[in-house]
Amino acid sequence: MSHKLQGLYVISDDVLTPNKTIIEQITQALEGGARIVQLRNKQGTLEEIKALSIEVQELCHKHNALFVLNDQIELAIELDVDGLHIGRSDHHRFEEIRKDFKGIIGVSCYDSISMAKEFEKMGADYAAFGSFFHSPTKPNSNVIDLRVLETAHEQLNIPVCAIGGINLSNVQELLNHKPDMISVISDIWSTDDIKQQAQNYTKLF
């Protein structure tokens, strides 16, 4: 599946993609060329997240894109979704998760190359680094040096994802450092024409 781990990676947001419009919004992003969609739902009930996961994964498959579920490990295993993304709170469980989950696993590595190398050894499929810019959706996250991406490329064999505060005015600077994927949240969902905005990013690859 690794050939799919490239391009525009959109991540849903409890505020910017509310339940009543999320499917329409994700559809537009996929029509605009998003390659990967992560469902990051921190407020829904397990039943809501489960129903959404099934629906969004079907939608992704229609557009030959990849579906990734954020943090909901047991649910990801139960539904056998394409991918699972784990952050700091589940790092300690990585080996157990890798044993039980057959799909793609991405890990948030913040600015740590050594952490990414460790997870790569244990079977991670991609490493995410960031924030590279001030992020409107995660105002407290640390801003890290763009050169982390170069080092990651030199030292890792798995694809690299850049995240955090990315928008059309700074994305070119980021792409000069050659990430495989760029994750965008607010600069996709806050626009009037999501499909067009997704196309603006997709063209850059």
UniProtKB/TrEMBL annotation:
A GO CC term attached to the entry: cytoplasm
Binding site for Mg(2+): 71, 90
UniProt remark on cofactor binding: Binds 1 Mg(2+) ion per subunit.
Domain Thiamine phosphate synthase/TenI: 8-188
An annotated GO BP: thiamine diphosphate biosynthetic process
UniProt superkingdom: Bacteria
Annotated family: Belongs to the thiamine-phosphate synthase family.
Protein name: Thiamine-phosphate synthase
